[in-house]
Design brief:
The complex is a heterodimer of chains A (107) and B (123). With 107 residues, chain A is an all-beta fold. Chain A has no helices and 10 strands. In chain A, 0% of the residues lie in helices and 48% in strands. In chain A, 36% of the residues are buried. Helix content of chain B is 0%, strand content 54%. Classes of the chains: A mainly beta (107), B mainly beta (123). At the A-B interface, strand 4 and strand 5 of A face strand 5, strand 9 and strand 10 of B.
Chain lengths: 107, 123
């Protein structure tokens, strides 16, 4: 199985800050990497696919980059509704695995 | 816009079989190009892909659960289902159904999800 490791596990920031979340794969997954946002009690929502493509309807303050084993999700200017949990997921090979999540908290 | 809705018992006894159904609206499970999936999330934890089924009936399971999982599809009802046998407390989780589709770029995406249903395994 491909292991996905996110860092940090939690992050404190303020409204307006620029933040970066990292995701590392245990072996190369090319650009087969997706990012999801999950709010409490809700299903995950797709933000970024294929490492850097913005899903329709997602604000442009979200962006993704990377390839191979190292990926990042960047939020350019945090809004109040962004303080929640984010997951990366690889679609390179089965079983399709997720990172353990990064919880973004208000400082 | 496709919508998915899970249904089934919220409480299952240990050693019994967990059975959930996902009803799809606004789209057809018979459409090619989509893999109808089950994903679970243990309380306060991350996400675990269980498996998926194609409209043809082909299935793909997570090896960690493969011996206990069966996913089936009913095109006449526009539904697909999950059965997980010999459950223990470790199977207590929120279970989501989701659609897995080609992103037209690199790889596939879970683009539509049900709202999730909590299944508790307890006597």
């Amino acid at each position: 199985d491909i292991q996905m490791t996110q860092s940090p596990s939690s992050l404190s920031a303020s409204v307006g800050d620029r933040v970066t979340i990292s995701c590392r794969a245990s072996r190369s997954i090319s650009r087969y990497l997706n990012w999801y946002q999950q709010k409490p009690g809700k299903a995950p929502k797709l933000l970024i696919y294929a490492a850097s493509s913005l899903q329709s309807g997602v604000p442009s303050r979200f962006s993704g980059s990377g390839s191979g084993t190292d990926f990042t999700l960047t939020i350019s200017s945090l809004q109040l509704e962004d303080f929640t949990t984010y997951y990366c997921q690889q679609s390179y090979s089965s079983p399709y695995t997720f990172g353990q999540g990064t919880k973004l908290e208000i400082k | 816009q496709v919508q998915l809705q899970e249904s089934g018992p919220g409480l299952v006894k240990p050693s019994q079989t967990l059975a959930l159904t996902c009803t799809v609206s606004g789209g057809s499970v018979s459409s090619g190009g989509y893999y109808w999936s089950w994903i679970r999330q243990h309380p306060g934890k991350g996400l675990e892909w269980i498996g998926y089924i194609y409209y043809s009936g082909s299935t793909y399971y997570n090896p960690s659960l493969k011996s206990r999982v069966t996913i089936s599809i009913d095109t006449s009802k526009n539904q697909f289902s999950l059965k997980l046998s010999s459950v223990t407390a470790a199977d207590t989780a929120v279970y989501y159904c989701a659609r897995y589709k080609n992103s037209d770029s690199s790889g596939y995406i879970f683009d539509s999800w049900g709202q999730g249903t909590l299944v508790t395994v307890s006597s």
